[in-house]
Design goal:
The complex is a heterodimer of chains A (117) and B (114).
Chain A: E1 4-7, E2 10-13, E3 19-25, E4 32-38, E5 44-51, E6 57-58, E7 67-73, E8 76-81, E9 90-97, E10 106-108, E11 112-116
Parallel strand pairs in A: 2-11
Antiparallel strand pairs in A: 1-3, 3-8, 4-5, 4-9, 5-6, 7-8, 9-10, 9-11
Chain B: E1 3-6, E2 11-14, E3 19-21, E4 23-26, E5 32-38, E6 44-50, E7 56-59, E8 62-65, E9 75-77, E10 86-93, E11 102-104, E12 108-113
Parallel strand pairs in B: 2-12
Antiparallel strand pairs in B: 1-4, 3-9, 5-6, 5-10, 7-8, 8-9, 10-11, 10-12
The chains are: A mainly beta (117), B mainly beta (114).
């Protein structure tokens, strides 16, 4: 089945630094990637939707200059948290959607636990 | 807009007990409905799905029936195991609205004790 590999699984960084999270579709081409943020004991909040080769569409309230999303190829999407602060600490999850597969097309990465100190 | 409401947890059950997690939805079109499971420290895994009214999704002993008349998709399992301890998310996808975004409920944490 379709697999999305997300790295790193966890990262600790200092305030003010930037962190890049990668999601790769291993055996299929992902035309659309979703990036979610999950706060403790809460649901997944959609941050942005990216389509290969075009700019990401950010949800209301999400700072696009802070959360940079790049989807340069059909197998790789990245989320860069720039100038990270402790309030950015969270669990980030990517999801790939393979068009043409209907409701079977959603595959999730294993998530990245970001801690900003 | 679309929304998903599921019962709040946490839910604590003894092994072999019957499980029900309620989920209701609102959608502008005719959504597909999902249950996802998240084990500690991991991403989400699709548990089951249903794409149209009266469909029943099932997997690993879990079942949910798409009830259009009550806009519900309740998750059930007849006999839970300790290994079922996880967070369960109800979700919908309303591709008729022009987007393939998933809308999630807040999640229900299930703890099964021996």
């Amino acid at each position: 089945g379709a697999v999305v590999s997300q790295h790193p699984s966890w990262v600790i960084c200092k305030s003010g630094t930037s962190v890049k999270i990668e999601c790769r579709s291993l055996d299929f081409q992902a035309t659309t990637m979703f990036w979610y943020r999950q706060f403790p004991k809460q649901s997944l909040m959609l941050m942005a939707t990216s389509n290969e080769g075009s700019k990401a569409t950010y949800e209301q309230g999400v700072e696009k200059d802070k959360f940079l999303i790049n989807h340069a190829s059909l197998t790789l999407s990245t989320l860069t948290v720039t100038s990270a602060h402790p309030e950015d600490s969270s669990f980030y999850i990517c999801s790939a959607f393979l068009s043409g597969t209907g409701v079977n097309g959603y595959t999730f990465g294993s998530g990245t636990r970001l801690t900003v100190v | 807009g679309n929304s998903v409401t599921q019962m709040e947890g946490p839910v604590t059950l003894s092994e072999e007990a019957f499980l029900t997690i309620n989920c209701t939805y609102t959608a502008t079109g005719y959504p597909s409905l999902f249950w996802y499971v998240q084990y500690p420290g991991e991403g989400l895994q699709l548990l089951l799905k249903a794409t149209k009214a009266d469909d029943k999704g099932s997997n690993k002993g879990f079942e949910a029936t798409y009830r259009k008349e009550t806009t519900s998709f309740h998750l059930e399992k007849g006999s839970v195991q300790v290994s079922d301890s996880a967070v369960y998310f109800c979700a919908l996808s309303d591709s008729g609205a022009g987007s393939y975004q998933l809308t999630f409920g807040k999640g229900t944490k299930l703890s099964v004790i021996p």
